[in-house]
Design goal:
By secondary structure, the chain is mostly beta strands. Helices cover 10% and strands 40% of the residues. Among the domains are: 123 residues, 3-Layer(aba) Sandwich (Pathogenesis-related Protein p14a); 126 residues, Immunoglobulin-like; 115 residues, Jelly Rolls. The strands form ten sheets. A five-stranded mixed β-sheet has the order 7-14-13-9-10, with no helix packed on it.
Length: 624
């Protein structure tokens, strides 16, 4: 049971000895009286505990005396309405009882598994789907056997069918679709969910209670590799698994992808910000459709990466953008998340493929892209020097930035900050309590082509962050201008000049940490629960998963999702925690922000949050 749970990324349940004894008693009762959940007083083998056990879980019988515990568990896992009970995220205890008797007819082996009494209703539902078979799993099962309710009947089928596939979504499901591709191509499917099983009250109740989507393959699954995509109004899931009927039962976490450099080390060349793409005007490309990618030319072929600000505008539904180097498969990372009715911006460094990058959209959306620099092999380009995060400027003790005002802010020559003569600076800027909907621009003072660009798009009275790499003028200043009145706070994490800094190595993007995952190499800290308020998540960067071992700073994207309260997140090189912030979010928001952060002496990065929240960290490059 725990092995199948582990395949789906779920934690183990513990055995309750009392429940197991009661389950065994019920199994013996069924051998004498037939399969049932209920026990009747006066029937052979009746016990009060057995009656409770039978009504608390899965039951099975077999005419073979050789049917063992594993046979009964396997049978339940091939029946979706029984497998769902085994795969509940909130199940923490169980009891199992096997009874065999060669003298009973026709049943000689019975099994009972408690999947109800051990549910802990205080455990919050995961914010990512639970799938079976789990992503990357190898299963020895390939077909549906039997169960009640019978999914074959609900599909209007007869004959045989393949192993039912399950996706338990974060939210209620009333419509869903799915595809399966196997070793011989696409497979016909029947998709069951609470919205289309109303004729069977038991089936509908199980599916509705667990936000479950069941995908029935029309044919038995031959050995080989499979990919599944399930889309619903309660969530979406894409995953892969392998069927091998000769394989042993084992749960191995899917191998995490390693990264590798996508180009040789390069240096930074800041430019006055300019607009590269605006799909609202047909500039660069058109509106990006759901679950599609577009390829965009950003630079000449010698450029290894581009530094740009990406804005998602007018999305059709909640979703995310992934900006990547046009690899054959879209990486499992996100650049920014969005919801309808908002314009969300995020600064990112994106590796290029012969001067191009690709933009994948989960839901259709318009995109605006402003470029502020290139990473290229050039003697005139600048190297990066990371510093301990430091707050450079905060308007709140003084005068708010007025609508349309251009404010010059000195960013070099301050104690602990970038030195005089720095060509550009890496900043995290927060727009605070804007008087109305608007956008904030941070640009080199005197730049002539920056006035149409934006750094942060904000809503009234919120705190909205974004990172920016911006060139300085000859006085070591940058300029800020906003559409409406607001306060601004500016933190610095490093600077670029032609001194003894570090070169940038663009990496194929990978995910480093995801607190939503349960038992996975992506989360060895929270077991799928939120990061606690004040908890410090320490991540080894240098030398891990293909990242260069001599890395001194990292370009990461940090995402906050499902925060319980308004909060800010700080990313820092471990050691003493600074008073800076990288991400600000209101309760329930999903907010992403890029960060260029110094690593500790041992190559580590630390992340902490003011309040409890889920955190996700992706990486796209390092300096060394």
């Amino acid at each position: 049971m725990n092995t199948y749970r582990a395949m789906s990324g779920l934690g183990p349940v513990t055995a309750n000895a009392t429940w197991s004894a009661e389950a065994q008693a019920h199994s013996c009762y069924m051998l004498q009286n037939g399969i049932s959940h209920d026990e009747i007083v006066g029937k052979p083998g009746y016990t009060a505990g057995g009656d409770v056990a039978g009504n608390s879980g899965n039951v099975a019988v077999s005419s073979s005396i050789n049917a063992k515990a594993r046979n009964h568990i396997d049978l339940w896992m091939t029946g979706p309405f029984h497998a769902i009970g085994i795969l509940r995220y909130s199940l923490r205890q169980s009891g199992f009882g096997l009874c065999t008797n060669s003298n009973t007819t026709p049943w000689k082996s019975g099994g009972t598994l408690d999947v109800i009494r051990g549910i802990d209703s205080s455990i919050p539902r995961p914010s990512t789907p639970i799938t079976f078979p789990g992503n990357g799993a190898t299963v020895p099962l390939n077909s549906f056997i039997t169960e009640f309710p019978n999914p074959m009947t609900l599909c209007g089928w007869s004959g045989s069918a393949g192993l039912p596939l399950i996706a338990m979504m974060p939210n209620k499901v009333s419509n869903a679709s799915a595809t399966i591709n196997g070793p011989n191509g696409p497979i016909e499917t029947c998709v069951l969910h609470a919205g289309n099983t109303g004729a069977d009250g038991t089936a509908r109740a199980i599916l509705d209670g667990d936000n479950a989507v069941v995908v029935m393959p029309r044919t038995v699954l031959p050995n080989g590799s499979y990919s599944v995509a399930v889309d619903s109004n309660g969530g979406a899931a894409d995953w892969q698994f392998v069927v091998d009927t000769s394989a042993g039962l084992a749960a191995n976490a899917p191998k995490l992808p390693d990264t590798r450099p996508s180009a040789a080390p390069v240096n930074f060349e800041p430019v006055d910000p300019f607009r590269l793409v605006d799909t609202r005007k047909g500039q660069g490309t058109t509106r990006i459709q759901a679950k599609s990618s577009v390829r965009i030319t950003a630079a000449t072929a010698d450029v290894a990466a581009v530094s740009a600000n990406f804005v998602a505008v007018r999305p059709s539904a909640p979703g995310h953008l992934t900006i990547y180097n046009c690899s054959s498969k879209v990486p499992e990372v996100s650049t920014l998340g969005y919801t309808p009715g908002t314009a969300i911006a995020n600064q990112a460094i994106v590796p290029l493929d012969k001067g191009d990058f690709c933009v994948y959209a989960h839901a259709s959306v318009d995109v605006v892209i402003d470029v502020n620099g290139y990473y290229r092999p050039s003697a005139d380009a600048s190297e990066f020097t990371p510093i301990d995060p430091k707050r450079l400027y905060d308007s709140r003790p003084g005068k708010r930035l007025a609508a349309g005002e251009e404010r010059k802010i000195r960013v070099t020559g301050t104690v602990g900050g970038p030195p005089v003569g720095a060509d550009a600076v890496a900043l995290n800027v927060t727009a605070i309590r804007g008087s109305n909907l608007g956008h904030l621009q941070i640009y080199p003072c005197g730049a002539t082509n920056s006035l149409e660009t934006s750094t942060i798009n904000y809503q009234p009275n919120e705190a909205r962050p974004n990172s920016v790499v911006v060139g300085t003028d000859d006085q070591g200043q940058v300029c800020a201008k906003a559409l409406t009145d607001l306060d601004i706070a500016i933190d610095v994490t490093g600077y670029f000049d032609d001194g003894a800094g570090y070169e940038f190595t663009a990496l194929n993007p990978i995910r480093l940490f995801d607190s939503r995952k349960v038992f996975s190499g992506l989360n060895e800290v929270t077991s799928g629960q939120k990061v606690r308020a004040g908890q410090i998540v320490k991540l080894q960067i240098a030398g891990e998963r293909g990242i260069p071992g001599d890395a001194k700073a990292a370009s990461v994207n940090v995402t906050v999702t499902q925060p319980d309260h308004g909060l800010h997140v700080t990313v820092f090189p471990c050691g003493k925690q600074p008073t800076t912030s990288n991400v600000n979010a209101a309760p329930g928001q999903t907010v992403a922000n890029g960060a260029m952060v110094k690593l500790s002496g041992s190559g580590q990065l630390c992340v902490t949050s003011l309040k409890s929240t889920h955190l996700i960290v992706d990486i796209n490059g390092v300096w060394s």
